[in-house]
Amino acid sequence: MFKNFIKYIIDDEIHHPIITRSYRVFIISSVVYIVLHVILNTKYPLNGLCENILAITTFIMFIDFLLRIIGAVYGYNVALSYTHKNSYQSLKGYIFSFYGIVDFLSAITFIFVLNDKSDDVFIILSLITLLKLARFTPALGILIDVLQNESKPLLASLYVMSILSISTSTIMYFIERESNQGFDSLVDALWWSIITLATVGYGDVVPQSELGKLFGGLSAISGFGMFALPAGILANGFANEIKRVKEIASLEMITKVPLFSSLDERAMYDISTILRLKRYRKNEIIIKEGTQGDAMYFIVKGSVSVIKNNFVKILKNGDFFGEIALIENVLRTATIKANTKCELLELSRYDFNNLINTKPELLKQIEKIAKKRYKNENDTNNRM
User: Cβ distance 362 to 315 under 8 Å?
Assistant: First the structure.
């Protein structure tokens, strides 16, 4: 019973979404309160009820760490990485993982609260708890991948920025050093150069000579483009990485469909590019029995019920339905209803036909597989 509870709250969103998501909201709320409390307490001392809530939320961080240790021993995916069948290896993998270290440091905050110590170490540890939220969003993983993939362009832009900063500071040093105390050394001039190229404009160091002002203006203009380089590289890297993640997810779903499982990678990629994201509310009818079929669907998030007479089947993340409609002009044989808020990928017959019209050999292969599958489904329905 306890083992199943650990699995429900940590590693089983698909089968027990309400329990898992409720626990997730519980942890996120606790983290947010701890961070806000520490920040506000540096200006407005918080006592009484606020201190009691802080003790409770830090205790939650401590309990969460213990539960994840137990989950690691059971072999659950508490570190969002590979797991081991061996309990010791699984526990070791979690403890020394990024999330294991963050969970440990977050748990220590409870000890500081018990000892009534609100020093700088406690403030740092409390702010580290904010990193626990990275477990619930892919943003941090995407950022790391982007930095790795774009490391060479980023280093190149950093090198160019360094050359530009040093060059402009050196020139301004020679121009202003005789009449301006703000340029007494290359170090002072370098400060002015960085602030000017970044277009921050603190104004604590200002050129005095006409030539210095002219060159300072040119430096500021060049800074617009130069310091925008890293931002552009990161933005492009994020867009490419998010696109890649979506393509991989789409390809993984497509490979599960019998119609497409024997196709080559290029054909699967072509199919993945024509998928469209569709969202449905809880209890909304996605497909109604007896209507004309014109698309198939892949479940990205949520669950749906396949309803036919008194028979009900539940489909969840990664499942698919309606594939026969792509190549057979038939009526829907069941009603599909969203059990939760759902995100689906739709593959319409129109887009699919436009694709296979350019690949006759692909159409023949799919038709052969689909007709066999459709015949088997009809035989099963007749027996029911």
Answer: no
- 254-283: pLDDT as tens digits: 777 766 766 677 777 777 778 888 888 888
For 192, the domain range is 152-229
pLDDT of residue 22: 83
Q: Which of 261, 327, 334, 255 is nearest to 298 (CA)?
A: 255
Are residues 157 and 270 located together in one domain of the fold? no
Does residue 237 lie within any of the structural domains?
Answer: no
Quick one: pLDDT at residue 116?
67
Residue 196: alpha-carbon gap to chain centroid: 35
CB 377 within 8 A of CB 328: no
The answer to whether 292 touches 348, Cβ cutoff 8 Å, is: no
Residue 108 near residue 37, CB atoms below 8 Å:
no
Total domain count for the chain? 3
The per-residue pLDDT for range 354-370, each reduced to its tens digit, is 877 776 666 666 666 65
How far is C-alpha 277 from the chain's CA centre?
17
DSSP letter assigned to residue 206: -
Beta bridge partners of 343: 279, 301
pLDDT of residue 149: 80
In a domain, residue 17? The reply is yes
Q: Is the pLDDT of residue 118 over 80?
A: no
* 113 lies in the same domain as 60: yes
Residue after which a domain boundary falls, among 75, 108, 137: 137
